[in-house]
């Protein structure tokens, strides 16, 4: 858990370091962008002057084009060869043409009437309405004369006149064009002056602005370098800090990993040692305990004194208890290593629970407890399951119930429905607190109320593992001072027809209890065991029944006899 927590903290530190570095990079880029924007920011006044210069250049271009057009027109106003040829051709036509002279003589006689003097108001009225003319034409006569005789004609004078007339027209046009051209030249001069003035101003401003921009660029670069340097220094410091923290966490994680590897190796060694110990217990504890219990039974038949019989009974009880502890350890060891297998056979659960009741009746009677066994009639049939594991579960639950119940009763209730066996063991013992309900299923766990009682604290842990091995579940209900109730649910399918017929053919198996009988005295038994104590014990027990026993520790001894 600590390793997972450390890994999460390390990942958070790495993520925080990257976030800080990304934030520093973002702010540095934003700062550089803002500084560059100040360098490339557009100047509106400079833009307007540039626009004005472009406008003047366009006007100058138009004016130059107009001047070129006027020069072209001036060239066209000169007397060209074509004009001379046209004048000469017209002159030739005039020479060949017959001259006809027409004369008109007009004679007119007029009479003028004297003007009368007018008063002031008459003159004022005539100022707005003019009076009629006082000159009156009395007689007019017209005389027409035509002379068809050719008159002398001077062609040179006529040609000179035409050329002079055309030259005058062309000269007037040239004067107009010259005036227009002069106006265009003046306009061009004005535009050139304005353009020169504007260009000089722009050159000066551009020079000053270039110097300012260069100075500003140096300042911006200097500020940018300083800022980037500080940011880089901060990033390096952050990187060093986070690398130090991450390195420390990695070192700590490696140390924890090495410690875990050592602990895992140690746990493996302990498990191996425990397995060896279990094997040792299996051989070195169970065999001597069996011998002690066997010799105790043999002594009990020879002792007539009640006190000696009491001692032997205590020895047998202690041996049985020790054997049960060893058996529990072995069972827990096999369950913990998943070496316990389920052996499903056909059996009668009702007979099984009757046997369990019979086996626990003496224990309950010894503590003056009432043992109640309630079995569902539906269980009086044949089912398929592992009766050995079911017996072990019931035995452990009943053993705990009898052990921790001082007075009252212990109840074993079983019923069958929904294809499951429901086994409930209820007692009127000490009970337990709510927080102890889950702890009781942990191995080697003993509750405060169990102090003074014998045991390792493995009984309920074995029950819990066996229940899960049989794919069931277990529930517990308990109140302190009011007893406890353990409810176990195990799947228990019914047998099919063939298995049921086989089980019925064997007949019902009722609990059979051994009764001493006197065998045939001529019976001889061969015993082979590497444990001499067990051989002697078994031989003594057989001799008590008149059976002759031949004991051998090795098979070779038998062949030598």
In DSSP terms (H or I, runs of 4 or more residues), the helix count works out at 13
**Through-space gap between termini:** 67 Å
Give a short account of the largest sheet: 5 strands, mixed
- Poorly predicted runs are 506-515
Given the helix and strand composition, which structural class is it?
Answer: alpha+beta
Q: Within the largest sheet, what's the order of strands?
A: 4-6-7-9-8
Beta-sheet strand percentage?
5-15%
Given the C-alpha coordinates, what overall shape results? rod-shaped
Helix content, binned percent: 55-70%
Question: What value does the Rg take, in angstroms?
Answer: 70 Å
Q: Write down the secondary-structure element order.
A: HHHEHEHHHEHEEHEEHEEHEHEH
- What integer is the average pLDDT? 75
The number of strands is: 11
What's the domain count?
A: 4
List keywords for this structure.
two-stranded antiparallel sheet, 4 domains, 5-stranded mixed β-sheet, alpha+beta, 561 residues, Heat Shock Protein 90
Structure description:
The protein is α+β, with helices and mostly antiparallel strands. It folds into 4 domains: 1-82 and 156-266, no CATH class; 285-340, no CATH class; 346-513, Heat Shock Protein 90; 516-561, no CATH class. 62% of the residues lie in helices and 14% in strands. The chain has 13 helices and 11 strands. The protein has a 5-stranded mixed beta sheet with strand order 4-6-7-9-8, covered by helices on one side. The protein has a two-stranded antiparallel ribbon with strand order 1-2. Strands 3-5 form a two-stranded antiparallel sheet. α12 links the parallel β10 and β11 (548-552). The chain starts with a helix and ends with a helix.
């Amino acid at each position: 858990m600590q390793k997972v927590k450390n890994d999460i903290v390390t990942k958070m530190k790495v993520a925080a370091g990257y976030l800080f570095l990304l934030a520093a990079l973002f702010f540095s880029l934003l700062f550089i962008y803002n500084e560059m924007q100040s360098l490339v920011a557009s100047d509106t006044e400079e833009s307007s002057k540039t626009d004005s210069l472009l406008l003047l250049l366009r006007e100058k271009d138009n004016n130059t084009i107009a001047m070129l057009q006027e020069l072209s027109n001036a060239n066209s106003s000169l007397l060209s060869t074509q004009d001379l040829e046209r004048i000469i051709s017209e002159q030739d036509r005039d020479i060949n043409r017959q001259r006809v002279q027409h004369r008109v003589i007009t004679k007119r006689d007029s009479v003028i009437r004297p003007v009368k003097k007018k008063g002031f108001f008459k003159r004022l009225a005539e100022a707005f309405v003019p009076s009629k003319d006082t000159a009156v034409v009395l007689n007019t006569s017209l005389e027409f004369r035509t002379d068809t005789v050719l008159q002398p004609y001077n062609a040179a004078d006529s040609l000179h006149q035409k050329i002079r007339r055309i030259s005058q027209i062309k000269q007037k046009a040239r004067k107009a064009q010259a005036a227009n051209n002069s106006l265009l030249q003046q306009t061009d001069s004005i535009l050139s002056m304005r353009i020169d003035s504007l260009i000089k101003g722009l050159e000066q401003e551009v020079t000053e602005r270039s110097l300012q921009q260069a100075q500003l660029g140096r300042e911006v670069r200097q500020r940018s370098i300083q800022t980037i340097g500080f940011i880089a220094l901060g990033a390096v410091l952050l990187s060093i800090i986070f690398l130090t923290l991450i390195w420390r966490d990695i070192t700590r994680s490696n140390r924890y990993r090495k410690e875990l590897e050592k602990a895992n190796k140690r746990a493996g060694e302990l498990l191996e040692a425990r397995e060896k110990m279990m094997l040792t217990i299996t051989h070195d504890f169970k065999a001597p305990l069996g011998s002690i219990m066997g010799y105790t039974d043999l002594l009990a038949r020879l002792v007539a004194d009640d006190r000696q019989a009491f001692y032997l009974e205590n020895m047998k009880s202690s041996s049985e208890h020790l054997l049960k502890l060893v058996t529990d350890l072995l069972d827990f060891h096999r369950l913990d290593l998943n070496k316990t297998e389920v052996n499903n056979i056909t059996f009668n659960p009702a007979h099984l629970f009757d046997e369990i009741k019979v086996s626990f009746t003496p224990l309950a009677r010894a503590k003056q407890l009432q043992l109640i066994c309630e079995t569902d009639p539906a269980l009086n049939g044949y089912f398929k399951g592992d009766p050995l594991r079911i017996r072990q579960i019931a035995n452990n639950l009943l053993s705990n119930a009898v052990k921790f119940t001082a007075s009252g009763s212990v109840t074993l209730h079983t019923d069958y429905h929904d294809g499951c066996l429901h086994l409930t063991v209820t007692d009127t013992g000490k009970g337990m607190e709510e927080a102890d309900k889950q702890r009781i299923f942990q191995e080697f766990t003993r509750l405060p109320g169990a102090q003074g009682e014998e045991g390792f604290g493995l009984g309920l842990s074995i029950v819990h593992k066996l229940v899960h091995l049989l794919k069931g579940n277990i529930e517990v209900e308990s109140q302190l001072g009011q007893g406890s109730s353990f409810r176990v649910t195990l799947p228990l399918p019914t047998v099919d027809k063939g298995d049921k017929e086989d089980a019925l053919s064997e007949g019902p198996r009722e609990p059979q209890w051994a009764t001493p009988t006197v065998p045939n005295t001529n019976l001889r038994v061969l015993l082979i065991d590497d444990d001499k104590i067990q051989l002697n014990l078994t031989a003594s027990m057989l001799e008590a029944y008149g059976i002759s026993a031949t004991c051998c520790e090795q098979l070779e001894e038998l062949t030598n006899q």
